[in-house]
Amino acid sequence: MLRRHYADGGTLGAAAGIAPTGNSQASITPSTVLLQPPRGVVKHAAQGPNHSLTSSSLSGSSKRIQKELAELSEVALGTHGSAHDREQYWPRTLYFGGPKGDDLYSWLVVLEGPSGSPYAGGVFFLDLTFPPDYPFNAPRLIFRSRIYHCNVSSRGNIRGTVLDAWSSACRVSDVMDGLCQLMREPSENEAASPALAHQMTTDRAKYLEIAREWTRRFAR
To answer: InterPro entries, from UniProt (predicted)?
Structure first.
């Protein structure tokens, strides 16, 4: 069970011309963010606006989302708990996601910063929104927590993951696995922030220093 609050404020990195990631109007408190992996699929879901469904009449997209939720829950609950499994399922042990409420199409994702990256030790929140025709169209994934990363824009939008080349065979776990890898190995060729990409290539030590400082300030 993970509990975190969103930290607001701060202008570190302003010298690079970068605004902090995240909506300053957003407010997440420990009482509003309390994730506990569900034991089984969600029994009642909403198929977006104007479409209320029960477990006995789920649409194809709802069934697909519930299946992926169940798979993520198995990993989070430790059903794949051996050392071999933990290695096999890396980085899936770093994140968990689930519906914010009764809307199966709107998730909150909690991500631990990968070891070996400047985000290690941090806990990051992301919004994941599924379209009604998922998986034929890609979900939308946005950082709510502030993060200093050249592939994440000041609004939390992400570039350089499977979302940029989506197919119906892709899954949430593919997106999150790729994001974890991207946090370890940024891609200047798919930068969401050209200024940060330039800093990373010309002054990597400073880039990493600021990324670590943002993690300490905004993700702990």
So the answer is: UBC, UBQ-conjugating_enzyme/RWD
What tens digit of pLDDT does each residue of 1-30 get? Answer: 343 333 333 333 333 334 444 443 333 332
For residue 143, give the 3-state DSSP assignment.
strand
Q: Can you give the pTM of this predicted structure?
A: 0.72
For 185, the token pair is: 């190995």
Side chain identity at residue 201, one-letter code: T
Q: Domains along the chain?
A: 40-218 (3.10.110.10)
Distance CA 117, CA 115 (A): 5
Tokens standing for residue 113: 């910063």
Q: Which residues have C-beta within 8 Å of that of residue 104, sequence separation ≥ 6?
A: 42, 45, 46, 47, 62, 65, 66, 69, 130
Spatial contact of 216 and 178, defined as CB atoms under 8 Å apart: no
Preceding omega of 135 cis (within 30 degrees of 0): yes
